Amino acid sequence: MKNHDTDQSAGGAIANLESYDLYIGGRRTKPVSGQYFSSDNPYTGEIWASIARGSAQDVDHAVAAAKSALPVWNALKPSERGRLLVKLADSVEANAERLAASEVRDNGKLLTEMLPQVRMAADWFRYYGGLADKIEGTVIPTGKPNMFTFTRHEPLGVVGLITPWNSPLLLLAHKLATALAAGNVAVIKPSEFTSASTLEFAELFAPAGFPPGVVNVVTGFGHEAGAALVAHPAIAKVAFTGSEMGGQRINEAAAREFKHVALELGGKSPNIVFEDADLEAAVVGAIAGIFAASGQTCIAGSRLLLHRRIHDQFIERLVKIAADARIGDPMEAATNVGPVATQPQFEKVLQYIEIAKTEGARCVLGGGPYTGPGASGGRFVAPTIFTGVNNQMRIAREEVFGPVLAIIPFDTEEEAFQIANDTPYGLAAGVWTSDIGRALRASERLQAGTVWVNTYRIGGASTPFGGYKRSGMGREGGIEAIKEWVNTKTVWICGKPDTNYPFVMRS
Fold first, then answer.
1. C-alpha span between 431 and 370 (Å, rounded)
2. For the residues of 111-149, what is the DSSP string, one character each?
3. Looking at residue 222, what DSSP letter applies?
4. Cα–Cα distance for residue pair 366/354, rounded to 1 Å
5. Which residues does residue 217 pair with via DSSP β-bridges, in sequence order?
6. Which of 65, 70, 154, 481 could form a disulfide with 213 if both were Cys (CB 3.0 to 4.6 A apart)?
């Protein structure tokens, strides 16, 4: 996928930049249009790569390659597919540092976060590699005489995977590992802001022994390559992680052709600290929940709910620690907060900060761009904390996707649960308490796909992940996620044919 020092042509790859082509049918492929677009480094602001601009024609070629590979992939024994997935996991681990560095160049997130994410992506392929030969049907006792009835699970076919810019490879693994284990083949459309790591990752499939066309990558823009992928008649399912608005458009377009859809969308997750919590641990958890990824994660604990009894002392500790965060080069291990990934997102975060001030929230830390030591490229937002927030303010109801924390006080457990659930989203929630009864009540009452107690932002391949309400539909992870990628067929076998049907004419 990657070349160097390409010649400049009309709309073509840019000279002296790393150039990435499409990946179709197991090989690098130039886009039909010959056009490329640039990708910049959020930390330096410099353009570092030239990415192929895929079109509907390129999507057609990728889908055709996937369709040709489908019978080949399905002809393999499930255990053979599993072995290939495990071999791929080993390759991802061996190349983790290179892949993570590529992601940091593209999205500006910390290497100390992206490297563990790439290694976790390997865990997903290994987990589903082990699960590939355990996709079992069920024998059903129907009570009908002379009947043997069972179910079997069959792959959907060619699936389209659309991934975001904040955690490209890990969120791709959430979808791709399960899809491949279930016997599907895929066409991937990564975010136009972060395509490089996905294209570099695609290079690992052929050496691992995957048949050509099982995995294809078409880079480009949402309204071009993305829209063509969603609309393509041969795509059986579309899985998307991204914005609520993007998910809504995809869901509407896919519904016209009755395609399967899985959506992992936004969040406005509550992180609730009760008066009996370990405050030191909760402070660290609150900071990690919102600032560790510069707030650029759908599960960010962007609403911090504090019991009024500990409210003031908690904020004092929180501000003191957050104010000492080291801001700068995301490739350095000592950096705590990196830049915002894209210029549009940077501007959006600053707009929300101004909205919060206008609505009466009190800014006790940050509150604007960061231009101090370590800043480069002009895309840093200072870690920002607002107090005096109520749950009807936009800063509390809308996803900011940046290093901005809204703090809301509460007096009772019931009030905390009410505030937490009073949101259009339901992706995740955190609870900090020493009362096991309260922890169990919270796990029942909170309307979220994931509830963490005395921890935050932890997950793995073996556990289901997904949202309630406008945070999406479907689940990724765990054994049950396999069902999201198969058709279930019921088979009736009559051991003793019965000709005594009521509608059969007899002489």
1. 31
2. HHHHHHHHHHHHHHHHHHHHHGGG----B-----TTEEE
3. I
4. 12
5. 23, 188
6. 65
pTM above 0.85, yes or no: yes
Indicate the SS3 state at residue 501: coil
Among the residues of 238-324, which ranges form H helices? 244-255, 279-290, 311-323
HSE-up of residue 393 (Cα within 13 Å, Cβ side): 24
Q: What is the spatial distance between Cα 114 and Cα 124, in angstroms, rounded to a whole number?
A: 15
Query: Beta strand 270-273 with 303-307: parallel, antiparallel or unpaired?
Result: parallel
**If DSSP states are collapsed to H, E and C, what string results for 344-401?**
HHHHHHHHHHHHHHHCCCEEEECCCECCCCCCCCCCCECCEEEECCCCCCHHHHCCCC
DSSP H or E run through 76:
none
What order of strands is seen across the sheet that includes strand 36-40?
2-3, 18-20, 47-52, 36-40
- Amino acid identity of 269? S
Span between the terminal Cα atoms of the chain, in Å: 72
Active centre residues (catalytic):
264, 298
Is residue 395 a contact partner of residue 237, using CB atoms and an 8 Å limit?
A: no
The token pair that represents 221 in the structure block: 């823009």
Q: What secondary structure letter does DSSP report for 1?
A: -
* Contact assessment for residue 88 and residue 179, using Cβ atoms and an 8 Å cutoff: no
Cα(189)–Cα(219) distance, rounded to whole angstroms? 6
Please tell me the distance from the alpha carbon of residue 461 to that of residue 453, in angstroms, as a whole number. Answer: 19
